[in-house]
Amino acid sequence: MLDTSARLLRLLSLFQARRYWSGAELSQRLEVTARTLRRDVDRLRSLGYPVQSATGAAGGYQLGAGANLPPLLLDDEEAVAVAVGLRTAASGTVAGIEEASVRALAKLEQVLPSRLRRRVAALHSFILTLAVSGPTVDAETLAAIAGACRDSEKLKFAYHSRDGAATEREVEPHRLVNTGRRWYLVAWDAGRNNWRTFRVDRIASKLASGSRFAPRKPPDGGFAEYVSRSVGYAPYPLQATIIFHAPVEAIAERIPRAVGMLDAIDESRCRLRTGAISLDMLCIWIALIGVEFEVRDPPELIDRVRWLAGQFHRAAARSQPAPGP
User: Fewest CB within 10 A of the end CB: N or C in the chain?
Assistant: First the structure.
């Protein structure tokens, strides 16, 4: 009986980790026969869990929505991760979840084992979060988009571009990417027949889901790298290539990922492709990174670096320390 109960908990945990499972996959995970799996599913149903099943080649099982929220089964690392996430949610970029986060955290900490409660308390005591400025996204909109990504369901929505123009989009959503200050949806745009990024705060909250689609192969470099390319330099009128005389790991620690595309040339050099709206701001920002660098393009940026270097050199030659008292 104890083995059966433990297996039922494991089965429930699998249903919560992924929406769709084939019978063969579940049997393999639980190391049981198909007959035993069917009996375990029936036991979960008798306990009130709405497990749905389908027969045929594409058949399988999924945990449907019931009248009550089933208990979530978390391992130690998952429980700590959830507690830390709830603690920092109030200062994040998702609007409307502050009070709910506090309530959920109180419930979680009440049932945590003492060993985990001490870990969470230590993390809370020594983690400070700076307030995030800029637009926030609606939690329900974010959850709806994430669900469409998970279930491979097309989405239709109204979208406002950078200049305020409103368009209607029909997309195949694949991933949500967070850059720290912004949320982006990476989707296949049916109207443009290509990959596109959409700022979630510019997506109208009224979303319409459509038919299912087959997930596509990610764009070159993956979804996160695609967002870096899209928001790091592609939208800017000035696009530049900078070579830093330092390992790529050292530069990656000094610049945000959303600034542009960073890749290694060799063990001691790396390349940054970035964008900006001002030559002077880009020159100063590059210099403040604090390592030797060279500008590859555009030519006007190379000329501006030479001009600023001359200005600073002449200023240093003329400058003298103030006389002492």
Answer: C
Q: pTM (2 decimals)?
A: 0.53
Which pLDDT tens digit goes with each residue over 99-153? 677 677 777 777 778 778 777 777 766 666 655 566 777 777 888 888 888 888 9
| Domain parsing of the chain, residue ranges | 2-63, 76-126, 155-229, 233-315
Task: Tell me the pLDDT tens digit for each residue of 281-291.
Answer: 888 888 888 89
Residue 42 phi, psi (nearest 5): -65, -35
Q: Which CATH number fits domain 233-315: 3.30.70, 2.60.120, 1.10.287, 3.80.10?
A: 3.30.70
Q: Does domain 2-63 have CATH number 3.40.190.10?
A: no
Q: SS3 of 242, please?
A: strand
